[in-house]
């Protein structure tokens, strides 16, 4: 397995990915080299420890790239530098398809970490009050998920036309409490818990933290299917053998045993194929 770490500091995506491979060569029906991109977090670990051995047994060479910002991955796929990404939900993918005129599709759900409401300062949801600060992610899709948790708790109301991929806080009003919503980078909410009363954290960041568990949350989201993480590829590749093998690896008993034997994934939403 080859691995790269990509950062956007002062460098364009085009330059970073210029040497990642020829798009025509990558589209071959029977190719045995797959290029997979990840954001920072637990889904890369799942792949490396649970999926990669299965693919290598089938003769695949996998080239992985970890991107420092999620916004880099879909442009990289559009440029032909990646065959698959594992970081986004169906809702996020569909929004990007519209925004960038892409034709991505999800081929399989992966064990997904739900969002949760966490706090360093409070042990109970009953401790919320007017003026309590609550951190939510800055991207529309994850922000909508977070606000739905607050809505379920009765802390806010959300307008019927709030949307998902175009969600903003304009349609959010106080309900039982006049809380102060702080918009933060999703990756920074966990480390910002010392500075706010509550924070809604994407579960992959919790699962990657050595001293955290999903089940430590004061409130865990009931994750809708549209917000669960998927393996994303271009639609034109859906019938390729490598895509089928990748899908089957995620649905395999071998991968299930890896997930179920690792306490890190307690609280994750599992693949329907295992039900």
UniProtKB/TrEMBL annotation:
It is found in: Membrane. It holds the Pfam family Lipoprotein_9. Residues 1-18 form the signal peptide. Keywords: Lipoprotein, Membrane, Palmitate, Signal. Transmembrane segments: none annotated. The keyword Nucleotidyltransferase does not apply. It is a lipid-anchor. One of its GO terms (cellular component) is membrane. InterPro entries: Lipoprotein_NlpA. Belongs to the NlpA lipoprotein family. This is Methionine ABC transporter substrate-binding protein. It comes from Planococcus halotolerans.
